[in-house]
Amino acid sequence: MASDRPLAWRGAGSVLATEGLLAASGAACVLAWQMHWWATLFGASLCLCGIAGSHGWQALHRRAGATDATAGRTDAEPAPLRPLLDQVPLPLVRVDATGAHAINRAARIVFDTDDRILPAVPALLERGADRLSHEGRHWRIDAVEIGAGERQLVLIDVEAEAQAADMRAGNEMIDILGHELLNGLSPVVSLADSAVTAAARGDAMLPDILATLARRVEGLEGFTRAYRLLSRLPDPLPAPVALGDLAQDLRRLFASRFGTSVALALDLPADASAHVDRDQLTQAIWALLQNGAEAALAASGPPRITLAFAIGTQRLTVSVADSGAGIAPADRSRIFRPFFTTKPSGSGIGLSLAQRIARAHGGDLRLLPVATTTFELRTCAGGGGAKPCDLAKTAGFA
């Protein structure tokens, strides 16, 4: 405010000086008329007209400047911010009462406009929309409310995001494979050298060395088979499946493996059916049951597993809860990684394979944020005689 005072005083002085000159020029005109000084009258008149014209021009200029400043204030992107926004690689869009506006270079390129996006794109204007398809590209919309009736949208390229995730997953898989193979091959090489030395000396330890070497080779073979199973999972072949029959098969399989040491409780709707790949779904649920039973046996309380099925119009939900001690917070984000395991003899493949099967069925597998360790597997499945859903269109549904 203090910086505006000199400008205010300067404006007031200019007005007073202009009014004084106007008064003096008017008095000179009157005096020249009375004294018949025609040349003076003509000069004073010109001076009066010049001052009046200059004063009017300044007034119009100030009004135009005020209008431009007001218009400039309605611009949500001040000029100094525009170069900064243009460096953002994601398209940024502002939505207000006048429509959708591209506010950085990425958005102007996508929508081929300098400002307002025309024709209007309904997904941008619709409040709550989270997906946009435009000229063959698919975007996720993240919206932020920035004022009354005004929103800021960030468009995220779904395909680019998926490619980045695939690249990260591929790099992580390569790291895991390299680590596991090196860990497995190092003792094999050492044992092979020891066997050669023992054979040359006629050492009686040779049979024990060869037996250990055989076990390590079997371990590497098992790891390789597990990786092959995970990486070559075939596409599911959905067919109508009676969930009661599937549950009884799992009960018998569970009893043959754990007997009566772990109690298994079933929660199943009567006469329920689903359109799924029975073999793959059995494999996924069995991985969850085995994982839960081993956790329950390692805990102090009575071992117990609950297997529950819930069927909807186009969704099958299977939950497996166990009485184990739970999963450590540090491990909750890593349990679905291939080959990650907290068990000395575990392969780290069961949960990863179960999740891949669920996603291949258009669903997902997740660990619920509840006190009792509970895994929830969801699939896209036409239940109750409904038409099977299109897996390609529903993959990853929430």
What does this structure look like?
The protein is of the alpha+beta class. The protein folds into four domains: 2-67; 79-159, PAS domain (Beta-Lactamase, 2-Layer Sandwich), CATH 3.30.450.20; 163-231; 239-394, Histidine kinase-like ATPase, C-terminal domain (Heat Shock Protein 90, 2-Layer Sandwich). Helix content is 52%, strand content 18%. The protein is built from twelve helices and twelve strands. The chain has a five-stranded antiparallel beta sheet. A five-stranded mixed beta sheet has the order 7-9-10-12-11, covered by helices on one side. Helix 6 (158-201) packs antiparallel against helix 7 and helix 8 packs parallel to helix 9. The longest helix is centred in the middle third of the chain and has 44 residues, at 158-201. The chain is elongated, with a radius of gyration of 39 Å. The model is unreliable at 1-9, 66-75, 383-388 and 390-398 (pLDDT under 50).
Low-confidence stretches: 1-9, 66-75, 383-388, 390-398
Share of helix, binned: 40-55%
Total DSSP E strands: 12
Distance between the termini: 54 Å
CATH topology of the largest domain: Heat Shock Protein 90
**H/E topology pattern:** HHHEEHHEEEHHEHEEHEEHHEEH
How large a portion of the residues is in β-strands, by DSSP E? 15-25%
Nearest-integer average pLDDT: 76
Number of domains: 4
CATH architecture of the largest domain: 2-Layer Sandwich
Query: What spatial order of strands do you see in the largest sheet?
Result: 2-1-5-4-3
Overall SS class: alpha+beta
